[in-house]
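User: Hi! I'm working on a homework problem where we have to compare a predicted structure to a textbook description. Could you give me the structure for the chain below?
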Amino acid sequence: MPVNAHGPALWLVRHAQPLIAPGVCYGQLDVPADPGATLQAALRLAPVLPRTGVARHSTLQRCELLALDLQGLEANLTADARLQEMDFGMWEGCAWNAIDRAQIDAWSNDLYLYAPGGGESLSAMLQRVRAALLDSWQHDSQHGQRDVVWVTHAGVIRCVQWLLRYGQAQPSAQDWSLPAPGFGQWYSWPWAGMGAALHSLSAQTQA
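Assistant: Happy to help. Predicted structure tokens:
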């Protein structure tokens, strides 16, 4: 579970409310976030976010807009496509209740390997998020010595939690009940508490 950070930490910030109708699958659609909500999120973050360190953001504009509003992090701000939301392929832009029920059931029955809408499987998403997480730990944080901020999406934040708890285990639909912060909110984990899990992920990558 996310905790308050003591010492250098990984900060996982979710973008503000996107400007899209409720109930629509949007995944990697590059929809903007509400500008007022983005500014309010940045103001809430200002008193708690570290003033130094490294910041990465999803290349989708709803994350980039918030990242650019986070004063003090501009010098070390990098766009990272690995922090994008899941690609839902042909489902994107469709109302969830309009997607064929048989396709939804097929995804639920094989959450790990099924690519919804012909887009991206959870397996592929976990692999890219794992690569980003290990890069942030090894290079951005210098093995836990610096704060790192990600401005990203709910799906990515759930992937980080899964990787830290369960490593390479394959989740089923019943397992995928991990929490995520609300729009414009965040979680933080001290690097010091993630060492064993990160070493294990790194060893699995090299095996």
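For your comparison, note the following. The two ends are 28 Å apart (CA to CA). The chain has a mean pLDDT of 93. Good luck with the assignment!
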